[in-house]
TrEMBL record:
PANTHER family: N-ACETYLTRANSFERASE EIS (PTHR37817:SF1). Keywords: Acyltransferase, Transferase. Acetyl-CoA binds at V82, G83, V84, R90, Q91, G92, V93, L94, S95, S118, E119. Belongs to the acetyltransferase Eis family. This is GNAT family N-acetyltransferase. Residues 1-152 form the N-acetyltransferase domain. CDD domains: NAT_SF (cd04301). It comes from Streptomyces massasporeus.
Length: 411
């Protein structure tokens, strides 16, 4: 078997192969673009070929940026289009491609990679761990009355529940530049968020509101008229359901204003908010707390660390302390013991012979890296071993994020 990089001339073969791996056929091209593969970086893709040159596997990577806790922005290849033909599964093709790809990422100087897992049982063995989570929130419109305003817990001022500014209803086909600019401002401050390169918007590749699929968009503008949030939505399935693809807001009051707009939409029986962060305050803003029904609670972004010291020193930190981490990387056959020292928001990570505080797999380190999974959760689950009683508590304090990590981008 040969694994080789692709060029632009390989696009058709690559697309046909990955679709065949999943038993599908490429969609009919849509007017104005919209095909997800049009945004592929073909110089970051590979084909697995049999001895006689037949393609049997694919893997690719997008060039993204990832926002870490502390608003640090780093390169993050987004692994995508991974597939093996059914006739060649369980023959080592996938493992060979993943090992090849991780080597290529390291050769480029990248210290982490991310992906969205089609199945939760596949990518852990390659060192990826779930790091952000998302859910859907459904609100019947007849139970969507807002909760009475109450005084702030820290001041005598009332909670406004809405931003100062205005909302404007547009169609997605005519407001791409606004959406791109607002999303970029949002993702730079949101831990766990990925960039959406300009070519995605220009090619209209991806899911709504990027794709050509018709959507209405409500844009929020601040008091100076500057766009600072949007919600993309459609009606249907059934026709009285309003589904919000994504809500992008630079602060909580903007989100509230956008939510109130869609919840007040006429001729709608219920509103479904897709991709809501866990523990989002929207349910608390309803007079009937039980009106908001959570569903679709699932993992989203998976993280894989390729250089543990570089990754740990890249992010921001919000507590001081020291931990010795004993990290196994079974897939790459590597092992390292690292002294993590955090002072004043910065970390130092060096090799050490000291006894470990925590022993863990690299996939578990990927899960806790963004602050979306508490180390103590994985200790209780039997994945991380704590060697002293307070190690998990200290790790929870160190790895927490200033904001819960969340990723909306599909790739």
């Amino acid at each position: 078997m040969e694994i080789r990089p692709t060029t632009d001339e390989d696009l058709e073969v690559f697309v046909d192969t990955v679709h065949a791996a999943f038993g599908r056929f490429p969609e009919t091209p849509l007017e104005g673009g919209g095909l997800w593969w049009s945004a592929l970086d073909m110089d970051r893709c590979v084909l697995a070929l049999t001895a006689d040159g037949r393609p049997v596997g694919t893997a690719g990577a997008h060039s993204f940026e990832l926002t870490l806790p502390g608003e640090t922005i780093v390169p993050a290849p987004g692994v995508t289009a991974v597939g093996v033909l059914p006739s060649h599964r369980r023959q080592g093709v996938l493992s060979a491609m993943m090992r090849h790809q991780l080597g290529e990422l390291r050769a480029r100087g990248e210290f982490l990679s991310v992906l969205l897992a089609s199945e939760a049982t596949i990518y852990g063995r390659f060192g990826y761990g779930p790091a952000t989570y998302t859910q859907e929130l459904t609100v019947p419109r007849h139970r969507a009355a807002p909760a009475p305003l109450r005084a702030s817990a820290t001041t005598d001022a009332p909670v406004t529940g809405a931003a100062h500014g205005s909302v404007e209803m547009l169609r997605s086909a005519g407001c791409g530049e606004i959406l791109e600019e607002v999303y970029d401002r949002y993702r730079r401050a949101q831990p766990g968020a990925l960039s959406r390169p300009h070519r995605w918007w220009a090619l209209r590749a991806g899911q709504p509101p990027i794709s050509p699929a018709p959507r209405y968009v409500v844009v929020h503008r601040d008091a100076d008229g500057v766009p600072d949030g949007y919600a993309s939505y459609s009606l249907g399935e059934p026709e009285t359901t309003l589904t919000v693809d994504e809500t992008i807001a630079t602060d909580a009051t903007v989100f509230t204003a956008l939510a109130r707009f869609v919840l007040n939409h006429d001729l709608v029986s219920r509103v479904v908010f897709k991709h809501v962060p866990p523990r989002h305050p929207l349910r608390w803003q309803l007079a009937d707390f039980r009106a908001g029904k959570v569903s679709g609670d699932m993992d989203w972004l998976w993280v894989r660390l390729l250089d543990v010291p570089r990754a740990l020193t890249a992010r921001g930190w919000f507590a001081d302390g020291e931990l010795v981490l004993d990290v196994e990387d079974p897939f790459l056959g590597e092992h390292g013991r690292h002294l993590l020292t955090v002072r004043d928001g910065k970390a130092d990570c060096v090799p050490t012979d000291r006894e470990p505080d925590l022993s863990l797999d690299v996939r578990d380190l990927g899960s806790v890296y963004l602050g979306g999974t508490a180390p103590s959760t994985l200790v209780h689950a039997g994945h991380i071993r704590a060697h002293r009683p307070d190690a998990a508590t200290l790790a929870d304090a160190l790895f927490r994020s200033d904001r819960a990590p969340h990723c909306l981008h599909w790739f």
